[in-house]
Specification:
This protein is α/β, with parallel strands linked by helices. It has twelve helices and 14 strands. A hairpin with a 2-residue loop joins strand 13 and strand 14.
Length: about 325
């Protein structure tokens, strides 16, 4: 068995972590022969709950889990990390403006970025889940300048999974028969689920989704709004935000970072380079990428039609505003 991988989960007493930890623990993310150490971070008032999470993990008797560390201290949580899952963020409360939310989270992710800089391995892979994920990820990255910006990503895999599922339901197939769905943009309601390059396997043959469905009004209308508003719909129905599906998406994201995508493209929020798909430089934006040897690369030279370009260009305006607001707070925090 290989040397243990040190994996951090923040807000570890929360509902997403509760769905996430067993999936990491049973070997379905890092492999059935990869030992690991789980580091669970939460705020001081949640340490009692975290003790219960610790006991449950112990009671699972997971053979790959070499140690579990629970803490409310950054110097303990971020030490020598291989993987950091930054799940926790300040949620938006009733009466809170988006600017207030950004200000609160800049403080959190500036501290966590500084802790990554000071204590973690420089090779650490950082995945930001807590919303607003793009602004939070950018803040953490800028606060950890010696860690390559390519090591930071945030989650749009949940949005991709949602789009794949809707397409699969439309065709009456399982989701593994749908591939190359793209999520462009921000992890917000401005995102654009793009199926122009998506394929579906029908009767053993892969065909383009547009070609197979022949329903432009659904693909350009209800599909997009359903994916964009899915999180809000779940909150309305469940009275709680997505947890099980979010945890599954985190596992998918981590597994692909670890083992690669075998040539298939997946959607990941990463730092733009100013050269890919006409998106401005130095912006966390969801792109289609392929991953090999724990390194992602943009999918190059994708043709983009006018409808897609219009949708894709909506998000940078939102992200620029978030970035400017976050940097203003970052400089004064």
């Amino acid at each position: 068995m290989s040397e243990p991988v040190r994996v951090l989960v923040t807000r570890a007493a929360g509902q997403i972590a509760y769905s996430l930890l067993y999936s990491i623990g049973n070997g379905s993310v890092f492999g059935k022969d990869q030992a690991f150490i789980l580091v669970l971070l939460d705020i001081t008032p949640m340490m009692g709950v975290l003790e219960g999470v610790l006991m449950e993990l112990q009671d699972c008797a997971l053979p790959l889990l070499k140690d579990i560390i629970i803490t409310d201290k950054e110097d303990v949580a971020f030490k020598d990390l291989d993987v950091a899952n930054l799940v926790g963020s300040m949620p938006r409360r009733h009466g809170m403006e988006r600017e207030d939310l950004l200000k609160a989270n800049v403080k959190i992710f500036k501290v966590q970025g500084a802790a990554l800089e000071k204590y973690a391995k420089k090779s650490v892979k950082v995945v930001v889940i807590g919303n607003p994920a793009n602004a939070n990820c950018l803040t953490a990255s800028k606060s950890a300048p010696s860690i390559p910006k390519e090591n930071f990503s945030c989650l749009t895999r949940l949005d991709q999974n949602r789009a794949k599922s809707q397409i699969a339901l439309k065709f009456g197939v399982t989701a593994d028969n749908v591939k190359n769905v793209i999520i462009w943009g921000n992890h917000s309601s401005s995102q654009y689920p793009d199926v122009n390059h998506a394929k579906v396997k029908l009767q053993g043959k892969e065909v383009g989704v547009y070609e197979a469905l022949k329903d432009d009004s659904w693909l350009k209308g209800d599909l997009i709004t359903t994916v964009q508003q899915r999180g809000a719909a779940i909150i309305k129905a469940r009275k709680l935000s997505s947890a099980m599906s979010a945890a599954k998406a985190i596992c998918d994201h981590l597994r692909d970072l670890w083992f690669g995508t075998q040539g298939e493209s997946v959607s990941v929020d990463v730092m733009s380079d100013g050269n890919s798909s006409g998106i401005p430089d130095d912006m966390l934006y969801s792109f289609p990428v392929v991953i090999k040897d724990k390194t992602w690369k943009f999918v190059a030279a994708l043709p983009i039609n006018d409808f897609s370009r219009e949708k894709m260009d909506l998000t940078p305006k939102e992200l620029v505003e978030e970035k400017e607001t976050a940097f203003e707070f970052l400089s004064s925090a």
